[in-house]
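Appendix B. One record, verbatim.
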Amino acid sequence: MTIHQIVRNTVEKLKAEGKTWTPDVYAETFCSEAKKAGFSVEDCSGIDRYVSLFDKKTAEEIKKYRVRTTAELIRFLISKLSRMNPNEATVLVELFSALAKKMAQSIDLLHNPDASALAKKTITILESQGGSTQIELLKQAWTNFLTVYDDSFLMKLTDFGPVDSANLRRTIEGLNLHKSADQGVDYDKTIRLLVSSLVPSIAPTMDNATIELTQKLSDNPEYIASDECEKELKIAIAMRIALDKRSVEEMVNALDILLEKLSAQLIELIERSENSSSEIREVKRDLEALESNKPTDFKTAHKRLYTIASTLEEKVEVLSKDLKIHNEKVVQMGKKIATLEVELAQATQASREDFLTKLFNKRAIEEHLNLKEAEYERHGHSFCVAMLDLDHFKAVNDTYGHDAGDAVLIAFAKILKLEARTSDVVGRYGGEEFMAILGETDLSGAKVFCEKVRAHVEQAHFMYQGQRIAVSLSIGVAERSDYPSLKALVNGSDERLYDAKHKGRNRVEPA
């Protein structure tokens, strides 16, 4: 809890009790709230911190007169000063000034720029013997500092150790910031990029050796720094190039077969034509030359085909009246086919996409599950499934309306997509329930991902028409290698989700 929150609690309590807001009443209520919050405030320690600074005789007088508050202490000291002779009062004032200066110098050493600036200003005013107006303004500046001071930024250190807001040194000494040189390298990111570069750009699949290497790197990212990995990478790169070249050769061969058929059909058509001209015979010779001197790459084949097509377009007037009659019909059919293809593509996309969140729908998720299952059965590549469910979602719809519920679902889908890797598959399984398929990930890695999503949702500001909606998330996660079948895996993740709900929601199970 911060000073801001304690101040707000103090104001609310004073309003509720209807007390007059005198400085003493406010200080008493503030210190009571700070004590309940377990927050150590120096001003609430009373006058004890000052009494120890006086001589023994003065301290006994303070105890005798039952001085309890700072205001009473000041009045006591003023009364005592008035009874002193001028020399004693001067000495005491100098002592107080020196004490305040030392306190300001101590504050200047703290690691807070605002407090340090105020401390320097305090020292300057004390050294220049500023007047009462300057002292009063300085006092108000310190009051403002205490009111707005917020040390919640220290909570960012909780990932590295316990945070003690009352003892910064203990907090720093308790942090675990030791990392080896290797831990400074993001091997996971490097491995993902490397695996992507090993995938053939033309060939449809990788060879078995490359697949084994990518699996080895995924299981042990540090392996990339070894000499053995360098050798295997050189072999994998050479194999990728060889696979691409083989695929190009297969495509060229397929194109060659197509050219043979095209040449044969055009030559036959030209020979059967009664009106063959010298220009058409030139096309025939070009086709025969193409047949005898076959191209070995796409660029050459494309250039020759384009030359033949241009010659046909320029030199052949009309092959038959039937072609003219049916040409428009063919064009119309082509347009219809193109339209149908666009509609089919849109329908295919719509059939795999959730209309609200734009994530994969249940049908698409099940297709990806089957693909992952096939990889698991063929290569033993395990994967994890996480079931994610928004807590008390019905209450959101009942309280704010279904439009607000839809807005929450859309916002959560963006969070889920943002946290997911490119290799992960996320989608809406139904209602407020979502699923994530985490490939090449064991249970511990999957729980890290799930906890990141849960924490992101917990800290996010879900807003609808100016109102903030509190949203939390329960997650159940399971690994394929722990279950006998795909169906058992999905049921297992669903059961873990039920456990998370049963144990209080806003958690990941197994924890």
